[in-house]
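Quick question, first post here. What does this chain look like in 3D?
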Amino acid sequence: MSETFTTAFLILFVGMITIFLVLSLVVLSGNVLIRIVNAFHQEEKVVPNKAIRRSSVSSEKHGMEEEKLAAIIGAVEILTQGKGKIISIEKIN
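> Answer (accepted):
Ran it through. Tokens below.
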């Protein structure tokens, strides 16, 4: 019976070490891949808008939450690269 436990613990130990080594290789190879990609990838330069204009649209006028209005204005600014202007916002039923 002692020999059976010894064999079981040996297999357990070898299996745990194998899993540890494989997971370590996955983590290390992932880090190496990230460093390689970051070395060749150039970051896009984000040019801040001169000022995000609060167009003639107001939340009180349209009954909209400030966060939603800010998100819409921000999306239009980004998509049109500062050239777009919101004239009005209407809810479609």
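The CA atoms of residues 49 and 82 lie 7 Å apart.
The first helix runs from residue 2 to 40.
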